[in-house]
């Protein structure tokens, strides 16, 4: 008899808690981005492929599947640190096999040398090069991610990677970096 | 609209009373600086985009002739400060704390100073607000108080106003440009205010002046009975009362919402210098090609205020006023609280340059080494924005950008009160400015990354679509072939499919025959 | 020549950290003089010892941390810590008591946390608490106030006691502490605590002990008034804000007054609470240590109130006769949460002006 009572009580409790939990799961559902989206949001989206994957999203998927987090040179230490926080792993130095962290650059085509072969247009991962066959090509500078992928295919080597120079709007208040001329008194 | 503008004055939290030193430069009338031989006019002198350049090297220009056009909203023209020849157009150092180059138009003055003006407007009330705004844009007027926001853009709003506030507070120590202008040109300032009232369709203007400028107050009380729409409010001296948000709090007791504008409360604020420039532009057709600049500090012989043509190199201004440089000299454009140091004297005077300060070392002691924060809270006590400066400082040093935004870093007006009182001499404002720049950079990079991601996805989609289209074309081609055959067959042509079938049947028959023959042979041999 | 580049603001108020600290120890002078007057010359030796040990310990700690000692000494915060600890402990305590206290305060509480500005706890009070729980006998052996003592403690007597434990005449500290009637005399708060625990009423205790001859106890009342005077100068000079001291005194006086009103026989009177023990020293000089206190004015008021209430609770119901050090440390622990809930509303975020 007491056994049956016990069973009934626990079954009842299980049912009630189950209902509460079920209700809570529906009512307080936390919408969270799938992990791949979160990783993708951290990556710099240069789509340069230096990590060995064809773009940032494929690398995000690879990280979600357990790949190393230190293969992104454009993102550098900051990205590695954020990825480490997100994935709950130790931050490690950038894997130099994939390249070194460097200043942000932008591709510039020396337009008088361009032969209009469209090879760079096909290589650009973000469609930031404008042009057509036998026509001069040009880079839409503010869309360029500086990924470097157009340099290699160019048959006449007319693409330069130019470091982005700070402007008054993008200046970071480094007073020490102002070139100071010596003025005669 | 509920009125919150009574004669009562409120106050804002915090604030400081640094030594004013205004008597150094406000004793003599505004003098006119002699013409320079070379002017360097930056094409961007306001906050907003520069307009396209409409002159080229070698062109002869007259004083007041526009050098750039204003085609888009937010653009403002700049004008030739004197007659002469365009020597060159190119990058040069401009009045910016970074010392980074921007585009300058260099003019060799011919000494004749021939001038062209716009058509003076006699009775402004006969003109529509739109016409007057066009005139203000054409005159290149930007807010002369410091930020340099295009005046026309600020006036060009359709929301009802409770009052126009004319800011004659000039709370920054040392600077007396507005003070002298108010003493000497109160009438023009009032006329400009009336024009502004007409443009924004408002009945009421409040003119606010700090009580440390009794002479300016007196010169207004002498003329204000002609202008019943303008009310004078003398407010107590405290830095930074002249900040837009602080002045609104003093006059109305209300706070401009974070990231909002005074217009959200029904107010619009203009500087006295701007009102003066508007009056000159409308009534006399004069463009903004000069402004009052205070030259002060113990290292000039003739401190005072000067009418300086925009584009005049600071070197010429200082040479005229008897500048004696000392070792480790600082040349500050602006006042001691918010001004920035110049790396050299080629920098030209622009629309927002209200002061050039050359202090001696005894006068404004250079900053000492930063010591550790002792959490004394003096900074929080003086912060007019009610922020926690020391908390912001820790967060800025730790590069905790989320924390900084949570602590409302972007409500900091960079007035410098916190750094002024800090006993450990921590350059707090500098940390905030750096952090703000970094936060903006991160936001910009994030936006760029988002665009890049979308473009990458779009390209992937495009490639995929093109592949599908290619396959689709192949499939359609194959179908078309089939269809053509079927049609041909109907018209009596042999079905190629039948031929194949026949060939297969023939092959099968041959195989079967072969097999049968083989079986027969085996039977024979075994029998 | 080159023009110097600098970040704005280019002008600066002339009040540096060392000037702030200098004001603090200048304002301690009246208290120190009365300390000398009532409890003998020992306080000077204690201060000297505290300074020597504190500054040396800091030098070693800073050297181990690889920093320059000149910049660390420049802010004078260790001087203030040393002086505060020296006036907090019994003035004839053995030399090693103050030495251990200072080493703990400077090395463990201050430098291990990263030096000035980084410490969570008030160094002087953390050092004091370590001493109190480690050496309860030495830490409660206050000398008699001069008016009650059989002999004055001059400098040589004090030196002899501090360094050898005996006066040149061969008396021990215990013998010195005996009053004219031959009984060991306690501080007013000690006497009250022991008497009340032994079920005596407050008036009975007052009548039985000679120390209650003046408001706050002989010596202690005047000493507290001296600290109050110095503290008021600090407030007047805006070295400290009034919020913390007012909070401490209110937090202590209000509950004390209520208890005195309802239970006059079994509670410590408000006058003793305010003018005895470490009340004024704590309210104006110790709780106001900016590093470990709350940062906004509203927060400072709450911080002070918390200390005051804690002092009252510890004195009335706790195991120690005075509770300033414990109260300050407990309030230090609450600073982050006080700061969180007393943060001013930033301009334009819906606050009222």
TrEMBL record, chain A:
GO biological process, one term: electron transport chain
Enzyme class: translocase
Predominant location category: membrane
Molecular function GO labels: 4 iron, 4 sulfur cluster binding; electron transfer activity; metal ion binding
Cellular component GO terms held in the UniProt record: plasma membrane
Binding-site residues, [4Fe-4S] cluster 1: 48, 51, 56, 72
Domain 4Fe-4S ferredoxin-type: 105-134, 135-164
Assigned keywords, A-Z: 4Fe-4S, Cell inner membrane, Cell membrane, Electron transport, Iron, Iron-sulfur, Membrane, Metal-binding, Repeat, Translocase, Transport
InterPro entries, A to Z: 4Fe-4S_dom, 4Fe4S_Fe-S-bd, 4Fe4S_Fe_S_CS, Elect_transpt_cplx_RnfB/RsxB, RnfB/RsxB_Proteobac, RnfB_subfamily
Domain 4Fe-4S: 31-89
Cofactors, names only: [4Fe-4S] cluster
Note on how the cofactor is bound: Binds 3 [4Fe-4S] clusters.
Top-level taxon in the UniProt lineage: Bacteria
UniProt binding sites for [4Fe-4S] cluster 3: 124, 144, 147, 150
Coiled-coil residue spans: none
Residues given in the record as [4Fe-4S] cluster 2 binding sites: 114, 117, 120, 154
Subcellular location: Cell inner membrane
Entries under Gene3D superfamilies matching the protein: 3.30.70.20, Electron transport complex subunit B, putative Fe-S cluster (1.10.15.40)
Any matching Pfam family: FeS
Purpose of the protein: Part of a membrane-bound complex that couples electron transfer with translocation of ions across the membrane.
PANTHER family in the record: ION-TRANSLOCATING OXIDOREDUCTASE COMPLEX SUBUNIT B (PTHR42859:SF3), OXIDOREDUCTASE (PTHR42859)
Family label: Belongs to the 4Fe4S bacterial-type ferredoxin family. RnfB subfamily.
Subunit structure: The complex is composed of six subunits: RnfA, RnfB, RnfC, RnfD, RnfE and RnfG.
Name assigned to this protein: Ion-translocating oxidoreductase complex subunit B
Automatic annotation (TrEMBL), chain B:
GO cellular component: plasma membrane
Main EC class the enzyme belongs to: translocase
Sorted UniProt keywords: 4Fe-4S, Cell inner membrane, Cell membrane, Electron transport, Iron, Iron-sulfur, Membrane, Metal-binding, Repeat, Translocase, Transport
Entry keyword Iron-sulfur: yes
Binding site for [4Fe-4S] cluster 2: 383, 412, 415, 418
Domain 4Fe-4S ferredoxin-type: residue ranges: 364-393, 403-432
Family matches, as InterPro entries: 4Fe4S_Fe-S-bd (IPR017896), 4Fe4S_Fe_S_CS (IPR017900), Ion_transpt_RnfC/RsxC (IPR010208), Nuo51_FMN-bd (IPR011538), Nuo51_FMN-bd_sf (IPR037225), RnfC_N (IPR026902), Soluble_ligand-bd (IPR019554)
Xref: Gene3D superfamilies: 3.30.70.20, NADH-ubiquinone oxidoreductase 51kDa subunit (3.40.50.11540)
Pfam family, one: RnfC_N
Topology with respect to the bilayer: Peripheral membrane protein
Region (Disordered): 461-504
Any one biological process term the GO annotation gives: electron transport chain
NCBIfam families: PRK05035.1, rnfC
Assembly, per entry: The complex is composed of six subunits: RnfA, RnfB, RnfC, RnfD, RnfE and RnfG.
Listed name of the protein: Ion-translocating oxidoreductase complex subunit C
Organism whose genome encodes this protein: Pseudidiomarina taiwanensis
Source taxonomy: Bacteria, Pseudomonadati, Pseudomonadota, Gammaproteobacteria, Alteromonadales
UniProtKB/TrEMBL annotation, chain C:
Record field: transmembrane: 20-38, 44-64, 125-145, 210-235, 242-262, 268-287, 299-318
Short name of one Pfam family: NQR2_RnfD_RnfE
Modified residues (FMN phosphoryl threonine): 187
EC numbers, comma separated: 7.-.-.-
Gene Ontology CC: plasma membrane
Membrane topology: Multi-pass membrane protein
GO biological process: electron transport chain; transmembrane transport
Needed cofactors: FMN
Alphabetical UniProt keywords: Cell inner membrane, Cell membrane, Electron transport, Flavoprotein, FMN, Membrane, Phosphoprotein, Translocase, Transmembrane, Transmembrane helix, Transport
KW Hydrolase (keyword) present: no
Compartment list: Cell inner membrane
Tagged with keyword Electron transport: yes
Record's function text: Part of a membrane-bound complex that couples electron transfer with translocation of ions across the membrane.
Family designation: Belongs to the NqrB/RnfD family.
Assembly, per entry: The complex is composed of six subunits: RnfA, RnfB, RnfC, RnfD, RnfE and RnfG.
Name of the protein in its database record: Ion-translocating oxidoreductase complex subunit D
Gene that encodes the chain: rnfD
